[in-house]
Design a protein that fits this description.
The protein has helices spanning about 5-20, 25-30, 40, 55, 60-75, 95-100, 110, 120-130, 215-230, 280-285, 300-305, 305-315, 320-335, and strands spanning about 20, 80-85, 110-115, 135-140, 150-155, 165-170, 170-180, 185-190, 210-215, 235-245, 255, 260, 270-275, 275, 290, 295, 340-350. It has a domain at about 40-160 and about 215-260 and about 270-350: Rossmann fold (3-Layer(aba) Sandwich), CATH 3.40.50.12710. With about 350 residues, it is α/β, with parallel strands linked by helices.
Length: about 350
């Protein structure tokens, strides 16, 4: 019996059959192909994977996010039934740390309906191992949620959603495509220009050669979640690397084994991501009726929530680990590391005052 084609072979066959594909189509195949995509077949996290996320660096991150949601839950009147949803929960580390803190609040555990948006079987098994006491349920569709108030957390989720790229030429904007040249995957431009009137005002004066990334998938996800929160009540917290206002600039990158990698070289084996356009997400959430907090850095968010005090408490409780605790705190808040590159975004029901954000 012949083996099924590899993901690179499938992509190349599709290009030969249908012509060059958009970057969004290419990213979607690379990351979420049903049987061969990067996020369907591997555990990308940790020192043996391709990257390390904030929850894996220190328990402090999840503990403070847990406090954030307890505070909002209490502001909402401590509802006796509510949904807590995490998008892309990784190994379940963030949620486990969150709930260890949050469930100390009287009534929180009793009212909790824990939902996880995940497609990777290996990660689902790890999530279940960590979160089984909280009776998690996995969803693949945002419509599978109850009518109860909805609290949503997404750490490094939006950066992994596919984007389209457009390049400014003399005759207008052209979409960047992935094609083949001598049987090698290469970037090229669609010959058909995009009318200037179809591009946002923020990039109207961009020079020839400028690149503009459009996160259509991110906008669709934010729209659906924002509309749900607007009806049910609640909040969305997203922490990711990105920028505050819509702008030009290419941010697509590939990472494999903690090193930058060619995004076209090994489909399905390389993590692909882009910086998040938080300005666009803010507009979507506001249009749905939510109040969007001023975007802040991860450092400011965690410091407002008390990471410095928590680090001191952990160091006192475990003197032998004091140096490790301080290094982890530094990695999360230092401007030279994750502190300013990563941003904290929150959109919430009117009347709520999310902690960690400047008034």
């Amino acid at each position: 019996m012949n083996e099924s084609p590899s993901l690179p072979e499938l992509i190349d066959m599709q290009i030969r059959t249908n012509g060059p594909m958009s970057l969004a189509t290419y990213m979607g195949l690379c990351l979420t192909h049903p049987s061969k995509g990067y996020y369907r077949t591997s555990d990308p996290l940790g020192t043996k994977g391709d990257f390390v996320t904030a929850p894996e660096i220190s328990q402090m991150f999840g503990e403070l996010v847990g406090f954030f949601f307890v505070n909002l839950w209490q502001q909402m009147g401590s509802p006796k039934a509510f949904t807590l949803l995490e998008l892309g929960p990784g190994r379940g580390t963030l949620m486990a740390d969150m709930l260890r803190v949050a469930c100390r609040a009287e009534g929180f555990r009793d009212g909790l309906d824990l939902r996880l948006f995940e497609t990777n079987p290996a990660l689902i098994a790890e999530q279940n191992a960590r979160l089984e006491p909280y009776e998690p349920k996995w969803i693949s569709d945002f419509d599978k949620l109850s009518a109860e108030p909805l609290l949503i957390v997404a750490n490094e989720f939006f950066d992994a959603l596919p984007v389209r790229q457009f390049v400014r030429a003399e005759d207008g904007w052209h979409e960047r495509m992935v094609g083949l040249d001598d049987n090698k995957r290469v970037f090229g431009l669609s010959p058909t220009p995009i009318p200037m009137s179809a591009m946002p005002e923020a990039v109207a004066d961009a020079p020839v050669g400028a690149v503009f990334e459009v996160g259509i998938a991110s906008g669709e996800v934010m729209s659906r979640l924002s509309k749900a929160v607007a009806v049910k009540g609640g909040a969305i917290l997203a922490i990711d690397y990105g920028y505050e206002q819509t702008q030009t600039g290419e941010t697509l990158q590939g990472v494999r084994r903690h090193q930058f990698a060619d995004v076209l070289e090994a489909p399905g084996e390389t993590d692909l991501s882009t910086h998040v356009d938080f300005g666009a997400l803010s507009t979507v959430a506001a249009n749905a009726g939510l109040m969007v907090q001023p975007l802040t850095t991860q450092a400011a968010f965690l410091q407002h929530l008390g990471i410095n005090e928590r680090a001191k408490a952990l160091a006192v409780a475990n003197p032998g680990s004091a140096s490790d605790v301080e290094q982890a705190r530094d990695r999360l808040v230092s401007p030279q590391q994750m502190g300013t590159l990563f941003k904290a975004f929150c959109a919430a029901s009117p009347g709520l005052v999310p902690p960690g954000f400047a008034p």
